Amino acid sequence: MSKTTHKPYQRTRAGCLPCRRRRKKCDQSTPLCLGCRRNHLICTWPSAGPELANTLGHSGSTQDGNPSLTHFCNGGDNVQRSIDFKRLLRQPSPLPPLFRRQPAGDLLEYFKLMTAPRMVCRSNIENPFITYHLRLATLSTSLQHAILAIGACHRAYISPDFSILAYDHYAVAVRSLKFGITEWHACSAANRAALAASCLALCWYEIIHANIRGALYHHLRAGGYMIRDLQDDSKFHQDELLGFFIEQYSYLAILANIDPSDRLKSQLVDPHTLTESLTHLHPRSPIYGFLLGASRDLFALILRTTSVATQRGNFGPIDANHYDIIMEMISRWAATSVSHDLTNQHSGRMYQAASIIYLHVSKHGLQDVTENLKETINPFINLFLQSFQQLPFDSPQWTTFMWPSLVAGSCMRDPSHRKALLKLFHDSSLQMEAVDSTARWLSQHWANMDRNPAVYGIRGLCETLSLENVLLCIG
Asked: Is residue 77 over pLDDT 50?
């Protein structure tokens, strides 16, 4: 009985590099194979003979084998390239298929009803995290998954099982965004706007998730480049959409400077550019003040305040005249009348008190903290707490609590002050890990300050956090 001879199996070497690395069968469609399209991977090909090179060259890929952004932005379908932004942002549009599936549909509803309302500080305006995001999401897989990641992360606070789902959507959002930015300059303005929205949305995920490795600042730096590129595009005239992006970026980038060691400022903030950007925010916009509230001018002063702290942190001399001018401007600041809601004024006074505290402390190094300085600051701690206590626990102004709480809290020596602040955190209706983490790190700082009174103020708080290798995502 003769043996049946089998031809030795030879594994094919055809297919794109991502499919080979993943040990998956590649359908070899160009410029974007089915596997890479489905998993939002950058479909690249090995250098090959003229036949494959010619195939790629005539399929709209770039010279290095990456697919053209036209194909990516359209998702491989024949989507109209000319986008009417006014129609896109104002008219209801069909939800992408992902949003209509379960459990993604449930997460979307949770995002709309529970999460997005907690992301704005004004209740009497339209919520751009709903209106703009959901319509831009029709153009971006990354934004779709970022929205679901935010909703799942928020929901995980009360239902921890959702944390895995949040990570899954976050991973796809990052992967899809990475895919999209490879050919940013070839993309239509509409799709670039959707990618910028995705990048900024990931910042909010990091804040809600209470990331302690500074992941927010990587997204924020990329978002800043995208926004500037859209501003420089002479064909992009969507002021309201730019206002949506600029207000998010300005708010987050200004607050990033809570650490006067200048680690973040050199990467994120050009004070002149940021101050100029704030002037582009128009009070007549239907979304004006969704993060800055009635305090746009005060935020511009915070930017100048942190520049003084940075100067002191780098051991440079402080211009006393410059210091006095900023202190006077902050002291004379009054909330603008953007609404009849008194909570805007309470929130503004919280930031005003914290800014004065920050400026006082920034004039001193860790070795120059005196009892006189501490007594000078105490009245402003009282003002901060009084203003905070007047905010209803379900007020949208809670959205912006973190920066002033950390600044004022870093100087609290009186146990009654500490107890009052922790009670405010405990009674909050935000239901976000960011509230718990703020309370946790302040408590650790207070314990450190009790052992070593010199570890005082925001510099002392940053020293406490650095010992734990913590870089808070502040929002």
From this structure: no
First to last CA, the chain: 78
**Which residue from 144, 146, 158 is spatially nearest to 114, judged by alpha carbons?**
158
Contact status, residue 4 vs residue 15, Cβ threshold 8 Å: no
pLDDT at 297 over 90: no
- With vertex at residue 283, the alpha carbon angle to CA 278 and CA 287, rounded to the nearest 5 degrees, is 90
C-alpha torsion angle, residues 53, 56, 62, 66 (rounded to 10): -110
d(CA 56, CA 30): 7
d(CA 66, CA 301) in angstroms, rounded, equals 45
402-409 vs 433-451: helix axis angle to the nearest 10? 10
Enumerate residues 6+ apart whose C-beta is below 8 A from 137. Answer: 96, 99, 143, 144, 147, 194
- Mean pLDDT of the region 459-472: 86
Which 8-state DSSP code applies to residue 213? B
For 134, how many CA atoms within 13 A lie in the half-sphere containing its CB? 20
- Name the residue type at position 68: S
**Selection from 203, 210, 213 nearest residue 173 by Cα:** 203
Full DSSP string of 100-118? HSTTHHHHHHHIIIIIGGG
Burial degree of 441 (CB within 10 A; 0-12, 13-18, 19+):
buried
Helix or strand holding residue 219 (H, E): helix 215-232
Contact 318, 359 (CB under 8 A): no
Q: Where exactly are the structural domains of the chain?
A: 17-67, 79-280
| Amino acid making up residue 371 | E
Query: With contact defined as beta carbons under 8 Å apart, do 456 and 420 qualify?
Result: no
Size (the chain), residues: 475
Indicate the CATH number for domain 17-67.
Answer: 4.10.240
Residue (of 184, 99, 174) closest to 136 by Cα position: 99
pLDDT at 338 over 70: no
CA distance 410 to 457: 5
What is the rounded CA–CA span in Å between residue 201 and residue 64? 30
Q: pLDDT tens for residues 130-143?
A: 999 998 998 899 99
Q: What are phi and psi of 76, to 5 degrees?
A: 80, 5
What share of residues in the chain are helix, strand, coil (percent, to 5)?
65, 0, 35
Strand partners, 471: 213
CB atoms within 10 A of CB 286: 12
What type of residue sits at position 349?
A: R
Q: In the numeric block, which tokens belong to residue 134? A: 């959901």
Contact 445, 460 (CB under 8 A): yes
